[in-house]
Amino acid sequence: MSTDAKRSASWRDSNWYVSLSGFWLEYKKHKIGILGLVLLALYVGMAVGAPIIATHDPAPTARVAPNYLAPQWVSVFDPEGIITNEWIPDTTLDNPDLWTVDPEDPVFHKNGSNQDEFDYLYHESTGDNDFNHVNLTWTHSNESMSWRTPPDSEENLPASNDFVYFTQQFEWPYEAVPSDVNMTIDFAITQTGDFAKPEGGLMFKVYVWLIDSSGNWRRVYRSYPLYSDVFRSRQIDLSYLDVLAGWRGMDENATGWQEDPKDVLTVAVGLVPTAVFHNYLGTTPEFEYTGSVTVSVKSMSLVAFGEYFGLLGTTDKGGDAFSQLIYGSRISLTIGVLATAISTAIGVVVGLTAGYLGGKTDEILMRFVDFLLVIPGLPLMMIMASFMGPDVNNIIIVIAILGWTGTSRLIRSQVMAEKNKAYVESARAIGASDTYIVMRHILPNVTPILFANITLGVVGAILSESGLAFLGLTDPGQPSWGRMLADAQSTGGFTHMAWWVVVFPGLMITILSLSFTFVGHTLDQVLNPRLRER
Fold this sequence. Notes:
- Helices cover 43% and strands 17% of the residues.
- It is of the alpha+beta class and 534 residues long.
- The protein has 2 domains: 21-57 and 315-533, MetI-like fold; 85-305, Sandwich (Jelly Rolls).
- Strands 1, 3, 4, 6, 9 and 11 form a 6-stranded antiparallel β-sheet that branches. The protein has a 5-stranded antiparallel β-sheet with strand order 2-5-10-7-8.
- The two termini are 43 Å apart.
């Protein structure tokens, strides 16, 4: 036999391998235990992969949509309902195809007579850390400008007839008007020549328009100095009138409104000259400065809100319920496992000490345990959590401090049964110390029962954390299932019929608790000799 074969045979014949193999052969006979392991694996995978699985910021205060929007899959019962969606993808132009629906490159336009004074470029990525972006450049060399006469009374169109812009189109598949629309545009401005002077920023503006398919322009954003060559994000919250101007023509049921010939909306971003010293007496203003202005647009997005959002809707604060549910598994598993580990360690030490030493030591320790068992657990946890503060580490400590008493009594009873057996007497006879006897003989014999107790202890810790979170005694900045239930209860989630912020956190708590219960029950049947014999 070769050396590798001998090593393999020696490894397979080792005591720990034989013990694990025998344990697994017994464990897999119990289907409920296998189900518990599968559920636990799913929860652990959810907790580890939370940054990848979550679709939005999981913070309870992170608002991504209006409050209490139903999950988008519920819209199958409401064909006319609007699903909240991003209609112009928020992109840094790493993929130019995402910039248009066609897909094509952005469509550029020149407006007015002074055509030679404008330029536009689409920059390709250089392969460095540079982002792709769209450039709109205006170069002026002290020439006359063309101005709109009379000016647009509603100021939707700029005062100058000479401006450059690019457009993005998207189709609107619904017959209703969205409840709200938000836009985001990231751009930077570079100025040269006279435009770089302090008053140069007054000579131009960046406009954002919404153009319906009938050709009506609606200005939704106009920039103001000071400008910077550093990319900055501008948030544009469309008003009720802006939304009506852009979308109402697509509502077939709208009265007194001209219906659009096709359900297409266009977003336009433009660089527009302004009359710095506008003469209101009717003479044509002139630009007496030279130089250039370049507007670099890095990304643009448009989100239209409806009655439905995401996989699990939104919470009382407009947060993404799905992302909070995913990250809540981290809190529950962390608190459940760590609190149980600490409480088990305390319970084992106290139980071993009291059971092995007996006498006054046993009496003092057990009377202290009895005192803690008499006090109601939840009120005491509430007092301690309020005193120590709503921090995850403090919650773990609070649950651990009050969760070791049952373990200590269980270990004490087992130790008292084991310490009088023949193998312990034999160890004492050959001069073994008490520490050696406890650690090498007694503890290994009580450990199998301890495993089953640990899994059931995790269930108690998870339920305790959920209860404290429901009472508002945990960190409000950390997403947890109990916190979701508390927020829903305190802000009228029940009266708003927002069942998704109640049902799904409750199911997550229930299923996770059941998975540990299934595993603990199976461990008890496999490791407990009396149950195994039956």
